[in-house]
Write a structure and sequence with these properties.
Blueprint (H helix, E strand, L loop, with lengths): L2 H18 L15 H6 L28 H12 L13 H13 L10 H8 L7 E5 L2 H5 L10 H4 L10 H8 L4 H7 L11 E5 L20 E7 L4 E5 L5 E6 L1 E2 L9 E10 L3 E3 L14 E3 L10 E5 L5 E3 L16 E2 L2 H10 E10 L2
Parallel strand pairs: 3-13, 11-12
Antiparallel strand pairs: 1-2, 3-4, 4-5, 6-12, 7-10, 7-13, 8-9, 10-11
Helix pairs in contact: 8-9
GO cellular component, one term: extracellular region
GO biological process, one term: peptidoglycan-protein cross-linking
Keywords: Cell shape, Cell wall biogenesis/degradation, Peptidoglycan synthesis, Signal, Transferase
Length: about 350
């Protein structure tokens, strides 16, 4: 045996012994790759009934706590399709996701849970086997806009804009497919979102629609006859006339300066692509104007792309320019949903539907 070959064999043997020697740590496992195939193939690990329980490890393999997880992305898309919204699909294990899991589990007659169990995952998948991540080709219209360079922080300055449009194609595409902008970028690390013909990976959900809808075409089936808003759990649930739960959405509900109302209200009507009118009597923090002013329509309008008017003056259920903050921050007194959830509710809610506020 040559000296060089013997040395290689010795190194290989030592490496093998090191990996198998008792008391020595195995190499760190790499975190799951985040791409279309990984998300579509993701599934909970099957539990071995005969396996002995092992000590919990505080660290999640080598994954950072804030990294999007392929299985979480998949579950969030499946929840969205089932109309149990996790808010912005971001691949992270947050309150909105846990609330949607729990609501879906209860609707399926399963035990209360805030984690994705194999049984719950099976129920989610039962609705269909279509991939949860699909491809989308960016079009000329997508990159044409119109876009605005920047959305001012102050409402008085927003009123000077001709439209409250998206600021760039990435923001627009993320919202169209119910995703956080970070997840869209993570799934498409080298994509040129401002170039027509670029093929990207997106969540396979009904894309956010835009534009007005004629009153004669509303409400669409299944019809929502009752809405329940829970101030404590920060969510909105929609029911049909027989009490069946049709949809669940996370929500931002009221604030200290303008708390959400109590008791019951009625839905008076729906406005798509609404303008927003500020009344000085609201006395919002940071707004100094003593005169009324209006902000033009658009997805970055303070009330988003839809306004569901309630019988309580100045209160409504509406969209938001900040979908990733829904359920995590306060609103100006109203009930704020993501734009896609608000539009979904607006398409199905009946005029005169009861809106009940559940106290904390």
């Amino acid at each position: 045996m040559s000296g060089r070959f013997a040395l290689r064999a010795c190194v290989a043997l030592v490496g093998t012994l090191c990996l198998s020697a008792p008391g020595l740590a195995a190499p760190k496992r790499e975190p799951p790759t985040l791409n279309r195939d990984a998300v579509n193939a993701a599934a909970p690990e099957a539990k071995d009934k005969d396996a002995k329980p092992q000590k919990k490890v505080a660290r999640k393999e080598s994954r950072k706590d804030d990294d999007p997880d392929p299985l979480t992305v998949k579950a969030q898309v499946l929840l969205d399709r089932a109309r149990f919204s996790p808010g912005a699909i971001d691949g992270r294990d947050g309150d909105n996701y846990q609330g949607a899991l729990d609501a879906f589990a209860k609707a399926q007659g399963l035990s209360e849970t805030k984690s994705l169990t194999p049984e719950l995952f099976e129920k989610l998948q039962a609705a269909g086997s279509d991939p949860v991540i699909t491809e989308y080709t960016i079009t000329e219209d997508d990159v044409r806009g119109p876009f605005v360079e920047k959305i001012p922080a102050k409402m008085e300055e927003q009123a000077e804009l001709d439209a409250m449009s998206y600021t760039n194609p990435r923001e627009m595409l993320a919202e169209r497919f119910h995703m956080s902008r970070d997840l869209l970028s993570a799934l498409n690390p080298d994509a040129a979102f401002d170039k027509a013909g670029t093929v990207i990976a997106v969540a396979a959900v009904p894309p956010l629609g835009r534009g007005k809808v004629k009153a004669k075409d509303l409400p669409q089936a299944p019809k929502v006859s009752r809405i329940e808003i829970d101030k404590a759990s920060r969510d909105l649930r929609a029911f049909d006339k027989d009490g069946k739960l049709l949809a669940y959405y996370p929500a931002s509900i009221g604030s200290e300066e303008k708390p959400a109302p109590s008791g019951e209200a009625k839905v008076k009507g729906v406005a798509f692509e609404p303008a927003y009118t500020y009344n000085p009597k609201y006395q919002f923090a940071g707004v100094k104007s003593k005169e009324k002013f209006s902000i033009h329509p658009g997805p970055n309008n303070p009330v988003g792309v839809v306004w569901i008017d309630l019988s309580i003056p100045s209160y409504g259920i509406h969209g938001t320019p900040d979908p990733e903050k829904v359920g995590k921050t306060e609103s100006h007194g109203c009930i704020r949903l993501t734009n896609w959830d608000a539009r979904d509710l607006a398409l199905h809610v009946e005029r005169g539907a009861t809106v009940s506020f559940k106290e904390e």
